[in-house]
Amino acid sequence: MLLAVDIGNTKIKAAVFEVNALREKFIFEKNESEKKIKKIFHQYEKIEVSILSSVGEKEKEVISLLQKYTRVEVVNPIFLFPFINKYATPATLGIDRMVLAAGAVLQYPDKNRLVLDAGTCITYDFIDRNNHYLGGAIAPGLQMRYDAMHNFTAKLPLLYPEEPINYIGNSTAGSMHSGAVNGFLHEIEGFIKDYSRDYEDLTVILTGGDAEFLAKRLKNTIFANSNFLLESLNNLYIYKTNND
To answer: Is the pLDDT at 57 greater than 70, yes or no?
Structure first.
C-alpha cells in the first residue's frame, strides 16, 4: 500500500492506494496533521511507502510525522519524470504542476494534453504528444476573484461561488456571480479553444477543488477528476520504481 500526500495552499489531501486502486481519501487542515496522519496509519497498517508533494516549502513537520510510520519519497525538481521539461525557467515550475503533467503523460499516452487545476489559482499545463512539457498559464482561481472584488472596492460584498441565474445580473450580487463564474468559464473555454486550434487530438483534464462545480458548466468535452493529483502521485511512484 502507498500513501499519496499533497500539501496545498490551504489544506492537505491524502489518499491510500493499493496498486492503482484508491482505497480512501482524506482532506484536513495543516494544524490537524499529527492527529490525522496517526489515524491513517492506524487504519491502514500495510502502508509501506508515502510520496509527498508540496506547493510551498517542504513541510518538515509532515515529513517527520510520515517517517515515523513509513519510508517517504518527496517529489522535487530532480525526481524522475516521464516528460522533457521545456519550461524556460524550470527551477520556478511548481512541483504540483510537474506532478499533474506526469500524471497526464502516464494516464493519457501519445496525446496532446492540457491539465487544468482549479484551486486557489487555476493553472494550465500543456504537454504535447512527444512528452514535451511546454508550459501554460496561471490565473486567479474562482474564489480569489470574489475575494478581489470585495477587498479592492469600497462597497462590494464578500460572496462565494453560486450558479448565476442569468448572464445579465439584475442585482449587485447577481452581477458579481455572473462576472466571476461566467468570466471564469469563458476564460477556460477560450484557452481550450486556442489549444485545440493549434494541437489536434487534445485531451483536457480538469482537476482541483472547483473541478466538479466547473465541469457541469463547461461546454467542452473534458475529463473531470478531482483526485487527479493524488492519482498522479501514485502513478509517478510506480513509474519511478519501474524505471530506477
So the answer is: no
